[in-house]
Amino acid sequence: MGEVADSCASGVSLGVEEEFLLVDAVTGESVPGAEGVLARARRHRWARTGGSFQTELLTSQVEAATGVCRDVPGLAAQLRFGRARLAEAARAGGMRLVSSGAPVLGGAAPPPSPGERFARITAAYGTVIADYQACGCHVHVGVADREAAVAVVNHLRPWLAPLLALSANSPFQRGRDSGYASHRLVELARFPGAGVPPWSASAADHDRRVAVLVESGVLVDPAMTFWLARPSPRWPTVEVRAADAAATADEAALQAALVRGLVGAALADLSAGREAPRLDEQVCAAALWGAARHGMDGPALDPFTGRAVPAWRLLGDLVARAAPSLARTGDLAWVRAAVEAVRREGTGARRQRRAAARGRRALLEALARDTESGVLPYPSPGAPDGGAGAARGGPLEAAAVVPGAVGPVGDAAQDRGGLP
Q: What residues make up the domain containing 67?
């Protein structure tokens, strides 16, 4: 995240790091253009917001990090600004900026970014790192007390799966339909300890576990953990990394609003003396796999009950859990409208498959357009009618479950063996 003030208010301040792919404007294949793009974007902290542009692991990736925000409309504005600057810099170099959780149309494996830490990461993980171009949307919420941050992460464990399902935006892997809504999670599974974080009794318990992994050489350093939620090793925040790179800026803002709402609910529970349930790690991991496989278009595993439920019902439970906190920050009506818009238009994965039915060029244009425009057809955060869409289509629990993982468009692409 960009510049984080010492005065971060627990459960209020938030920021987002977005990872993007750089692709050739003609072929749509990943290209190692990060250095030029960042130079043209004048890589530095955004003067008034504390945001910044950064390198990522491979030279086909770039990152935009917002500054510290106190409200979702301000965050969404920063997200759109960062995307616009990077997209302009990419176009100037014959590239397009694409927000997708995994490479869509392939390309030669790009070299790693320069730097001593990236070199150590490459040496530690060998060939599995060579083509790892997965991109995520990382949400930070201010939690200044480290003991509280660890306890909040415990409370977040059962909600990582529906956060991933809602964000799923990586159905393709180098020109072929993977059959997953989020192939990024499959890519992440290459690395040790990836996925749902373990339940930690205290900050010391968490730190001991990380120290063992670092000292054994499993992790390069304490910042290298692959858990999808953690107390940030750098900032006074809880960092949630469940989401695929969001197709639009508004979907990234939605993810941030939901995460902040869940953190607020966790802090309220902790204030009342209620610690997180110690849910079975294998059940939580299975729920996460199901979210990656099906997204919002199939059954979900409820970690609390161990039973299969419609994915939209589990997301409805998540919104209900976060609702008191969302209401306090003025975000509840917009979140409901945004969730309804995703249900109506489809997740990023479903929209990618829909575009792919029209061919590679149509898919590339749809990806770049969503990345640059930043919006779905609903009011953006802060609009006066931000809750208008919530009434359409009935309650979340009533949403129909679409059988199978990919639907007709995805099935057709698979039958062809790849994208036309």
A: 14-416
Q: Examine residue 4 and state whether it is found in any structural domain, yes or no.
A: no
Q: What CA–CA distance (Å, rounded) separates 77 from 80?
A: 5
Residue 387: the pLDDT is: 35
Against a cut of 0.90, is the pTM above it? no
Q: Which amino acid is at 305?
A: T
Q: Hey, is 218 helix, strand or coil?
A: coil
Q: Which bin fits 306, alpha (ψ -120 to 50), beta or left (φ > 0)?
A: left
Residue 285 has a CB neighbour count (10 Å cut-off) of 18
Phi, psi of 83 (to 5 degrees): -65, -40
- In this structure, is residue 173 part of a structural domain? yes
Q: CATH code at 200? A: 3.30.590.20
Say how many domains are in the chain.
Answer: 1
Question: Taking a C-beta distance cutoff of 8 angstroms, is the pair 140, 14 a contact?
Answer: yes
Q: Lowest mean pLDDT: which of 178-187, 198-207, 236-245, 376-385?
A: 376-385
Q: Which amino acid is at 94?
A: G
User: Would you tell me how many other CB atoms lie within 10 Å of the CB of residue 216?
Assistant: 9
pLDDT digits (tens, 9 = 90+) for 31-49: 999 999 999 997 656 767 8
8 assigned to some structural domain: no
